[in-house]
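Hi all, posting the design record for the shared folder.

TITLE: backbone redesign
STEP: 1 of 1
STRUCTURE INPUT:
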């Protein structure tokens, strides 16, 4: 049976106290992004496959190899979202965005890619991301990267490396692609099958192949930024100026292209050495997308950061969220007549929001056994309803930190708790 109780490879169950780390990170994300005027958007986990194919590009690894695609009963092709941007764009198209209007949103949630699971590479992983749509200014790109760096700083993640590059505009691409092909053609036979396929379909991706032999060859390739048209060069220079004026420590990475076809101008990635082979914490860039079902092309800039990887980095740096005990107040009632009293008392405390997390023990185990569980729960306070307490209508309140005990009339426990917590 064990196989059936395990989560699928590349997916996991999350329990406390790990969930506390997630909540902490999510809270920091909301807080930071709100400060930049971004609001939260939640889109569905599945979409029509078309939403991803059109936006991400048919030649990308994500669309070619990694999407979980299936047919629904009506024969429609659906996919689990492999990333967040395409769904956000569909939602914005559906919501309506007037010309000249801006929209700044953030999202967080699960993404799905059928990759080979490895450390830091999962089939269900989670991203927190931002999109700023409708603003074509290079200063927006600088602010977006600075916001991501700010987010990492608030998470306490130090030592991350920020890399920036430009892919230019679509009209810059044919001569750049030609130059790249000219460079790679004599090396093709020594390169991996993926690169051989990319040579025709997406020669840009040959620049960032992780296969060592391909990487060696790519090191000698012409730099995209040198081959850009004047407008693109100017745009990129402004992004870099903006980053400098915001005090962001970054480097220009000539072979950074990012996987997806929709990028124009700025692309960026943040890596961290604490992550091992899968060292990307976050990535993003400026994109041009035709809103689904419309002929409206909109531009935006955004990024996605992997939550699991952010947590790995925090963990490696020894940053821990505050742990939450399973209970703050533990009610013990070992005898059968004590159980309904415990039930009622727990209900009263919860409805009055007193005593924090209230756990009533209905197991009917011995006093000793219940105290053991109370200790394990981390509760600060134990309310005991033993035989004596039942007989005289009281509850013994034990402070677990110092062992002190107070006898309180049953009807006054709530008021007493209120008094001591003030
Ligand atoms: P991408 O859309 O591939 O640039 O991904 C953005 C971020 O999501 C990466 O920088 C990683 O932090 C994270 N990420 C991407 N794919 C995975 C995966 N399979 N497992 C865990 N995290 C991932």
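Okay, here is what came back for every position:
SEQUENCE:
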């Amino acid at each position: 049976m064990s196989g059936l109780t395990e989560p699928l490879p590349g997916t996991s169950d999350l329990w406390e106290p790990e969930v506390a780390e997630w909540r902490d990170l999510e809270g920091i994300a909301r807080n930071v992004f709100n400060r930049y005027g971004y609001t939260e958007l939640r889109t569905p986990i599945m979409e029509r496959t078309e939403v991803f194919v059109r936006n991400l590009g048919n030649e990308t690894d994500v669309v070619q190899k990694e999407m979980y695609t299936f047919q629904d009963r009506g024969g429609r092709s659906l996919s689990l979202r492999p990333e967040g941007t395409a769904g956000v764009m569909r939602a914005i198209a559906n919501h309506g965005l007037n010309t000249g209007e801006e929209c700044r949103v953030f999202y967080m949630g699960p993404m799905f890619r059928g990759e080979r699971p490895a450390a830091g590479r999962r089939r269900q992983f989670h991203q927190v991301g931002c999109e700023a749509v409708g603003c074509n200014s290079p200063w927006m790109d600088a602010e977006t990267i600075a916001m991501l760096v700010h987010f990492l700083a608030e998470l306490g993640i130090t030592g991350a490396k920020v890399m920036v590059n430009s892919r230019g505009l679509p009209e810059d691409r044919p001569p750049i692609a030609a130059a790249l092909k000219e460079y790679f053609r004599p090396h093709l036979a020594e390169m991996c099958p993926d690169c051989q396929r990319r040579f025709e379909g997406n020669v840009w991706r040959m620049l960032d192949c992780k296969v060592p032999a391909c990487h060696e060859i790519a090191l000698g390739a012409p730099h995209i930024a040198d081959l850009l048209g004047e407008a693109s060069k100017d745009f990129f220079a402004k992004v870099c100026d903006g980053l400098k004026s915001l005090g962001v420590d970054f480097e220009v990475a000539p072979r950074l292209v990012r996987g997806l076809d929709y990028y124009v101008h700025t692309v960026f990635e943040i890596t961290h050495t604490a992550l091992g082979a899968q060292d990307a914490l976050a990535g993003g860039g400026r994109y041009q997308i035709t809103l689904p079902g419309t002929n409206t092309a909109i531009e935006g800039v955004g990024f996605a950061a992997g939550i699991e990887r952010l947590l790995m980095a925090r963990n490696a740096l020894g940053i821990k969220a505050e742990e939450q005990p399973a209970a703050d107040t533990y009610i013990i009632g070992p005898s059968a007549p004590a159980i309904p009293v415990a039930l009622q008392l727990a209900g009263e405390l919860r409805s009055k929001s007193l005593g924090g997390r209230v756990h009533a023990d209905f197991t009917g185990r011995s006093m000793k056994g219940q105290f053991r569980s109370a200790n394990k729960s981390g509760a600060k306070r134990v309310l005991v309803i033993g035989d004596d307490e039942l007989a005289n209508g009281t509850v013994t309140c034990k402070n677990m930190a110092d062992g002190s005990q107070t006898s309180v009339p049953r009807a006054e426990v709530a008021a007493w708790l209120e008094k001591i917590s003030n």
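COMMENT: The chain is about 40% helix and 20% strand.
Let me know if anyone wants the other runs.
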